[in-house]
Amino acid sequence: MIQEIKRIVENYLSNAKLCSIIPGTVTKDGIRISEKLVIPEELVFGNMKKNLIIGDSVRLLRNHGGQQYFILEVIE
Amino acid sequence: MIEFLVSTGGKIYEINDLITKVTYQDTFNNGCSKLEFTYISKNLTIQNGSVIRFKYDNTNIFYGYVFKISRGKGTEINVTAYDQLRYCKAKDTLVLKGDTVTTITNKMCNYFKLNKGTIVDTRYVLETSVQEDKTWLDIIYGSISDTLMNQKKWYLLRDEFGSIALRETSDLKLDMILGDESYCYDYQYDKSIDNDFYNFIKLAAIDKEAKTLEVTVAQDETSVKNFGVLQYYKSIDKKYSTAQAKSMADNLLSLYNKEAETISLDCLGDTRIRAGSSFHGQIEDIKLNRRLVVKSVTHKFLPIHTMSLEVMT
């Protein structure tokens, strides 16, 4: 029973997409955060967006729901 | 009457006479449909993954794959089979860009190598979004509700006898009456103010700098008289003007000031009824006389065909 509840809550949380900080690399169509996923430019926000150069490593803040990504910093 | 075929180990068996019980369940945009049946084993062993085809009165009912077998000491074996949509419960990561429900459905069918049937063009282009670590079904259902909110058109994803279909619900109207005098032998009707019912809406905008509190109220006096005060309270951003807050409150009131109805019907079976079909419901006692859409249905086939259905109100 407890295992079931844990599984359900885990699934729910992963589905709800909580805020989180994610590292990524700038590519020509957006920011790559995993092998499968490149965040499209339209969903990336922040005033550092215009200064990004392809190949930069960045740290992103994902909003609740996972439909906006804010650039926190470029990692040295 | 029934035609039941099983394909297992490279051979096809007709087992009409061995079947003792068949139940078919279908729900509206909520996963795959399910066929449960019981058969007498004799020498035939049905394996997981076997293909099942079931027809009743020459109407196509179910085409799908066995996912579960359970038995006890006797010779009766219970089997559960699902249609192709079962495979779409898998999680994946997608970026939607310039996609419609139609293009996502096509991608899904190609990815899982599913058979395609009628897939209508939904036309509405969804907003760019990242769908990370979600099931294909959830992604499609989410997109269907976005389409509904923007286009007022409601789509349904289902498997039709072995081919994936995407249809508009308004195309699934049946010329059929279910009710008192027609097919229906029992019904259950609930009317409730227990959940999500509010007739008194209170919105509070707190301005921390000016230290003021502006409260906007909307209420339905007749409803308050009948049911007592059922209050909904929410704090809102101070940026809303008084007029905006008032219209928000009015909207909430019209949304929540409705008694929730649930209707389920027990009827003689009709193979045309699936989740998403709509029919004309007519029950004298509860003054029901309008078109209803099936939310879920369970058909039981042997010895006689009956169905219980739940409708959307």
Automatic annotation (TrEMBL), chain A:
Domain of life: Bacteria
Protein name: Uncharacterized protein
Species per Swiss-Prot/TrEMBL record: Anaerocolumna cellulosilytica
Organism taxonomic ancestry: Bacteria, Bacillati, Bacillota, Clostridia, Lachnospirales
UniProtKB/TrEMBL annotation, chain B:
InterPro entries recorded: YqbQ/XkdQ
Pfam families the UniProt entry points to: YQBQ
Residue ranges occupied by any YqbQ/XkdQ domain in the UniProt entry: 22-311
Protein's name in the database: Phage protein
Organism: Anaerocolumna cellulosilytica
